[in-house]
Amino acid sequence: MKYISVEMPLIGYGVYQVTPAECVRCVKDALEVGYRSIDTAQAYANEAEVGQAIAESGVARGDIFLTTKIWISKAGEKTAAASIDESLRKLRTDYVDLLLIHQPFGDYYGTWRAMEAAYRAGKVRAIGVSNFYPDRYIDLDHFAEVKPMVNQVEAHPFDQQRAAQEIMRKRGCAVMAWAPLAEGRNGLFTNPVLEAIGAQYGKTPAQVALRWLIERDIVVIPKSVRRERMAENLAILDFELSAADHEAIRTLDLGHSLWFDHHDPAVVEQFMGWVNIV
User: What's the pLDDT band for 278 if we cut at 50, 70, 90?
Assistant: First the structure.
């Protein structure tokens, strides 16, 4: 089928763990600072607040790239289809720019069929997946009529996803990084390698980490509830890392998640316990 062309900003604002009580203010701040991409999800329990913030922001809907995700409890063709309409209602929009399957569990094949239908109906401008390791991604990609356009995965200096990104690249799938700053884990904000690189450009370790990701063509969606930090995370377009910088950051790769392994049966059991959070 013929795909529509959709441009996705390389830098967005993520609202994971932003409470409903502060979400409206945070999204408005992000839009005022200059973000034009907002990432939410059914499981974040703040879609309605994101929709309210966008409606009250004064920024035209067409200027905002809006992403949401379908949770495990909404898996399956009919259930997912109904959940898409519910997300649109909460977000106060008749379309989202990007819709993702949040986790590779449940009847995600049925979910994908609902997403393909939503894509054809104009309710969604692009569709993709999240947390799909290469094996499950390739399986879905092989059988899908509309191919996954984005895979949102954990990616930061300590889990660099190089092999996975190459697989996505060969199949025309963009990579989006959740936790691009590793939520500060493993001492990212004071990492000596990132600090030394940042000192060359008058930038923080966080700015270096974000710049490094976008130079690898990985979309970033950092989250902060502080307006000044939002602005800092956005101010990464006025410098460029050297090849030596990239090589230095490459040495930080641990080659595994700082959170969980989706192939671990105990982790899968844990996710099954979260099925009904939405």
Answer: confident
Q: In whole angstroms, give the CA distance from residue 241 to residue 213.
A: 11
Phi, psi of 62 (to 5 degrees): -65, -15
- Give CA–CA dist 38/155, Å, rounded: 18
Instruction: Give me 172's structure tokens.
Output: 């025309």
Measured distance between the N- and C-terminal CA atoms of the chain, rounded to whole angstroms: 33
- C-alpha to C-alpha distance for 65 and 63, rounded to whole angstroms: 7
Residue with tokens 């799938």: 173
DSSP secondary structure string, the chain?
A: -PPPP----SB-EE-TT--HHHHHHHHHHHHHHT--EEE--GGGT-HHHHHHHHHHH---GGG-EEEEEE-GGG-SHHHHHHHHHHHHHHHT-S-BSEEEE-SS-SSHHHHHHHHHHHHHTTSBS-EEEES--HHHHHHHHHH-SSPP-EEEEE-BTTB--HHHHHHHHHTT-EEEEESTTGGGGGGGGG-HHHHHHHHHHT--HHHHHHHHHHHTTEEE----S-HHHHHHHH--SS----HHHHHHHHTT--SS-SS--TT-HHHHHHHHHTGGG-
Exposed e or buried b per residue across 124-142, where buried means at least 16 C-beta atoms within 10 angstroms of its C-beta: bbbbbbbbbebebbeebbe
Cα dihedral 157/161/162/167 (nearest 10):
-160
Per-residue pLDDT band for 123 (boundaries 50, 70, 90) equals very high
Q: Catalytic annotation on 108?
A: no
Q: Is the dihedral of CA 272, 20, 213, 111 positive or negative?
A: positive
Q: pLDDT by residue (tens digit) across 240-272?
A: 999 999 999 999 999 999 999 999 999 999 998
Choose, from 44, 108, 119, 137, the residue flagged as catalytic: 44
